[in-house]
Design a protein that fits this description.
Blueprint (H helix, E strand, L loop, with lengths): L2 E2 H8 L2 E3 L5 E2 L1 E2 L9 E4 L16 E5 L11 E5 L2 H16 L5 E2 L4 E2 L4 E2 L4 E2 L4 E2 L4 E2 L4 E2 L4 E2 L4 E2 L4 E2 L4 E2 L4 E2 L4 E2 L4 E4 L4 E4 L2 E4 L5 E4 L4 E2 L4 E3 L5 E4 L4 E2 L4 E2 L4 E2 L4 E2 L4 E2 L4 E2 L4 E2 L4 E2 L4 E2 L4 E2 L4 E2 L8 E3 L4 E2 H30 L8
Parallel strand pairs: 4-5, 5-6, 6-7, 8-11, 9-12, 10-13, 11-14, 12-15, 13-16, 14-17, 15-18, 16-19, 17-20, 18-21, 19-24, 20-25, 21-26, 24-27, 25-28, 26-29, 27-30, 28-31, 29-32, 30-33, 31-34, 32-35, 33-36, 34-37, 35-38, 37-39
Antiparallel strand pairs: 1-3, 2-7, 22-23, 39-40
Length: 348
């Protein structure tokens, strides 16, 4: 498919600087641009590339002012990053139209309710009383357990396992290898061993959620583990039983949340963050990568380090740590001076 810069600007609500008739037929990173490609400039780090890129057009912010001539056509928009996301989504939808129908072989229980325009891929398993809503896409080798509900236009990619009784809302995406509804990690110490505590709850995933590959979300001991509307979870994340992840929160890869912890709305959680169990994280909290959080956190906090602390304390501690080598050197000189004067020192 091919568009002109003018057509793309019209779709994006932008304006054109340069040749609006230039043809665009692919996307490229700004540093790897080629003729016919469109790139975007959102991070100031990449500004030097706009003067050397081979891309035919570049999405830039309306405020961008080049310091020297730019060969590419500039398409000025409010948010280049969000604009390229919308354009990529449009192209993806054109290239990969939704499927419908039930492929063979697969197993769809006679009590399951599958919408006429839903898609069930080869070797998928759909359990008793499961509900697959209109437009849902269940890819091959997927397990949908008894009583599971899959909402409208949700995509379940190959190899996903969704245990009995769990619910997935509308317009969700669950990537390959994700497991939803496995037992929570509940064991009671008994006579030198451990007795398993039955996990009789479920997992409820609300609308517009995306779950990365090989992420696991455990079912509740009782009640529900909840992933709220608009949450985006990266690959290889663990969400334990009875947790709640608040609306529009995002989490990077290898984050882990222990049982019964509640994370607020619009939080940003970095990679390899660990959250202890039974704590409350407020709304709009930012937690830096590899932080370990063990206590309740108020709204709007910025958390760094292990054990985690607020940003101001973290910066102050980092400054003091950088002073330690000089401090040890000074202490050594003081000790040597005292010893040379024949005085005893306890500084060692």
């Amino acid at each position: 498919m091919e568009f002109t810069a003018n057509q793309i600007a019209a779709l994006a609500g932008g304006t054109v600087d340069g040749n609006g008739d230039v043809k665009i037929n692919t996307f490229a990173k700004i540093e790897e641009g080629c003729e016919g490609a469109i790139s975007f400039l959102a991070n100031p780090k990449y500004i030097p590339y706009i003067y050397t890129t081979g891309s035919s057009a570049v999405l830039v912010s309306r405020e961008f002012e080049p310091e020297k001539p730019v060969a590419s056509t500039l398409i000025r928009v409010d948010d280049p990053y969000a604009t390229v996301a919308r354009l990529l989504t449009m192209v993806q939808q054109m290239m990969t139209p939704r499927r419908s129908g039930i492929e063979e072989p697969c197993h769809v229980d006679t009590t399951a309710a599958v919408a006429d325009d839903a898609y069930i891929g080869t070797y998928a398993y759909i359990g008793k009383n499961a509900v697959i809503a209109a437009g849902a896409q269940i890819y091959p080798q997927t397990y949908i357990g008894d009583g599971v509900e899959i909402g409208e236009n949700t995509i379940i990619y190959p190899g996903v396992k969704i245990y009995h009784g769990c619910k997935v809302g509308k317009n969700c995406i669950v990537h390959s290898g994700a497991v939803i509804g496995a037992d929570g990690f509940g064991f009671a110490p008994v006579d030198g061993g451990y007795e398993k505590i039955p996990q009789i709850g479920n997992v409820e995933i609300e609308d517009d959620v995306e779950i990365g590959a090989n992420t696991t979300i455990d079912r509740a001991m009782m009640g529900s583990t909840r992933i709220c509307k608009g949450v985006k979870l990266d690959n290889l994340i663990q969400v334990a039983h009875n947790c709640v992840v608040g609306e529009s929160t995002v989490m990077a890869a290898q984050a882990g949340i222990a049982g019964s912890t509640k994370v607020g709305k619009h939080c940003m959680v970095g990679g390899q963050v660990g959250l202890a169990g039974h704590i409350q994280v407020g709304d709009k909290v930012e937690i830096a990568a590899q932080s370990g959080l063990h206590r309740d956190t108020p709204d709007n906090a910025r958390i760094f380090g292990t054990p985690a602390m607020n940003f101001t304390d973290y910066v102050a501690q980092a400054k003091e740590l950088r002073r330690l080598p000089r401090l040890f050197d000074r202490v050594g000189k003081i000790e040597k001076t005292l010893e040379n004067n024949g005085e005893k020192t306890e500084l060692k």
